[in-house]
């Protein structure tokens, strides 16, 4: 049977309606019958599937891996051997066995052809066990003859019917029958939420692990920035006339403002393809959108830790910050938090804003505003208008900059050129100790050190919750489209 119509006439909407992809919309009218039995709306998704127009697949996975992860998300109480056999059977059915280990590919690098991508999408739907009556099974000559004969019977029966009136009459007659053919529901034995999350983490990791250049850049992007800063500042001095205070303040400013940007770039580039896949697969009931989000967060944390650790080890000891292991640990913890916050903030916005470019611009604007208002490095918070002073408490940059300033300046002693030089002779010689600078520029920061640290790390679960909520909102938005 074919559904014909021009663009916008409702072909896809009809398929969405009868396969249960329209969500809880109440503006759709009509009934769906299967083998003479009327289906409830909540049963549509359990019986019917269709392959979308657009093939949304992970670029670096092979055909076998793509179908295997779909099978794992669909089936729970199946052994690895049974899942492997089921995947092999589906690949044979859609004639993909000979290229099972080729990667999917994308516009940027060569993979399988467009037609083969279409077959992979079909195979992914077949793994969910839908109403399979009109396809020819080519796994063996016997199955091919049997299924081909079945298709011919269906075609023959349709050709011999009086198309419209007979179909309606048959429907009405079937509805009044006492004994009806049972409805073939899909496999309902799906994995638990935790198992689904673990499968998604494994799939994301395997997909991104094939992008060697991408992994290298994720691990070294912060170091590349650190190289530039290190060559610009060289070794920090304790002489006020040689920029002892200004250089340290500038380094703190960079360590607070730059890591969120690298985190933002990671999410803006890597997550939109995963979001597109979760939009499609969640409609099929494989998992919830928030599970894909949580899987990505679990995936990027090790990369963030390694990347920030490489940066911190380099910049801290090369620049000559306070030579104490405990203080290095605090420095690393603060820079890591800033990097992860940038990534989480981007994910939260990606939940409700479709265009990654708009998201990227918005996060950059928010981060820039946070640096300006929150750090007190461009203008002390005490000198700001009251409204900006209040807003500074909502920025993570306020707490991270205060921690880093105290961490570096506490206990430092400065000199000012030749011995005996004072503020009278040179206005730059205002401070002989780092604590004097802290109390003048960040009054009370010493007593707030622990509290600042706790508040800074409270941003992490807070933004993670906001991101999860944004994807809940995304569910609502998509279901109403």
UniProtKB/TrEMBL annotation:
Annotated GO CC locations: apical plasma membrane; ATP-binding cassette (ABC) transporter complex
TM segments? 219-236, 293-319, 325-350, 362-381, 453-471
Superkingdom of the organism of origin: Eukaryota
Annotated GO molecular function terms are: ABC-type transporter activity; ATP binding; ATP hydrolysis activity
Q: What sequence ranges are listed for the domain ABC-2 type transporter transmembrane?
A: 196-409
Membrane topology, record value: Multi-pass membrane protein
Keyword annotations for this protein?
A: Membrane, Transmembrane, Transmembrane helix, Transport
Which InterPro entries does this UniProt record tie to the protein?
Answer: ABC2_TM, ABC_transporter-like_ATP-bd, ABCG_transporters, P-loop_NTPase
Question: What compartments host this protein?
Answer: Membrane
- Listed Gene3D superfamilies: P-loop containing nucleotide triphosphate hydrolases
**Ranges where the ABC transporter domain occurs:** 2-130
What biological process terms from GO does the record include? cholesterol efflux; cholesterol homeostasis
Family matches, as PANTHER family = ABC TRANSPORTER G FAMILY MEMBER 28, ATP-BINDING CASSETTE SUB-FAMILY G MEMBER 5
Query: What is the similarity comment for this entry?
Result: Belongs to the ABC transporter superfamily. ABCG family. Eye pigment precursor importer (TC 3.A.1.204) subfamily.
Write the protein's name. ATP binding cassette subfamily G member 5
**What is the species listed in this Swiss-Prot or TrEMBL entry?**
Strigops habroptila
Taxonomic lineage per UniProt?
Answer: Eukaryota, Metazoa, Chordata, Craniata, Vertebrata
């Amino acid at each position: 049977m074919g559904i014909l119509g021009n663009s916008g006439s409702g072909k896809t909407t009809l398929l969405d309606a009868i396969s249960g992809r329209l969500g809880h919309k109440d503006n759709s009218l009509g009934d769906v019958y299967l083998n003479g039995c009327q289906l409830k709306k909540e049963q549509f998704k359990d019986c019917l599937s269709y392959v979308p127009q657009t093939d949304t697949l992970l670029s670096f996975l092979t055909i076998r891996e793509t179908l295997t992860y779909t099978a794992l998300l669909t089936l729970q109480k199946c052994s690895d051997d049974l899942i492997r056999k089921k995947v092999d059977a589906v690949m044979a059915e859609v004639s993909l066995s000979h290229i099972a280990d080729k990667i999917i590919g994308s516009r940027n690098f060569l993979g399988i052809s467009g037609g083969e991508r279409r077959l992979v999408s079909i195979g992914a739907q077949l793994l969910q066990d839908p109403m399979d009556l009109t396809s020819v099974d080519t796994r063996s000559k016997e199955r091919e003859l049997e299924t081909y004969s079945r298709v011919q019977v269906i075609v023959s029966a349709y050709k011999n019917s009086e198309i419209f009136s007979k179909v309606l009459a048959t429907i009405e007659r079937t509805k009044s029958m006492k004994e009806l053919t049972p409805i073939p529901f899909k496999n309902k034995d799906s994995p638990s939420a935790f198992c689904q999350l673990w499968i998604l983490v494994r799939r994301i990791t395997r997909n991104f692990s094939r992008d060697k250049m991408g992994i290298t850049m994720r691990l070294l992007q912060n170091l590349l920035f650190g190289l530039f800063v290190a060559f610009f500042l060289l070794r920090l001095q304790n002489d006020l006339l040689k920029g002892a205070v200004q250089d340290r303040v500038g380094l703190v400013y960079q360590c607070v403002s730059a890591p969120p940007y690298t985190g933002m770039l990671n999410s803006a580039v890597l997550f939109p393809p995963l979001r597109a896949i979760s939009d499609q697969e969640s409609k099929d009931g494989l998992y919830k959108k928030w599970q894909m989000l949580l899987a990505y967060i679990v995936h990027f944390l090790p990369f963030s830790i390694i990347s920030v650790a490489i940066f911190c080890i380099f910049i801290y000891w090369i620049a000559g910050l306070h030579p104490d292991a405990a203080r290095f640990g605090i420095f690393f913890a603060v820079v890591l938090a800033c990097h992860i916050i940038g990534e989480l903030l981007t994910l939260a916005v990606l939940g409700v804003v479709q265009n990654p470019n708009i998201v990227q611009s918005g996060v950059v604007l928010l981060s820039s505003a946070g640096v300006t208002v929150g750090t007190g490095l461009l203008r002390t918070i005490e000198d700001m208008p009251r409204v900006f002073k209040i807003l500074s408490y909502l920025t993570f940059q306020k707490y991270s900059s205060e921690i880093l300033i105290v961490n570096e300046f506490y206990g430092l002693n400065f000199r000012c050129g030749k011995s005996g030089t004072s503020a009278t002779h040179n206005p730059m010689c205002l401070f002989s100790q780092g604590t004097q600078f802290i109390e003048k520029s960040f009054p009370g920061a010493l007593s707030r050190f622990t509290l600042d640290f706790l508040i800074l790390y409270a941003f992490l679960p807070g933004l993670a919750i906001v991101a999860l909520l944004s994807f809940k909102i995304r569910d609502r938005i998509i279901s109403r489209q």
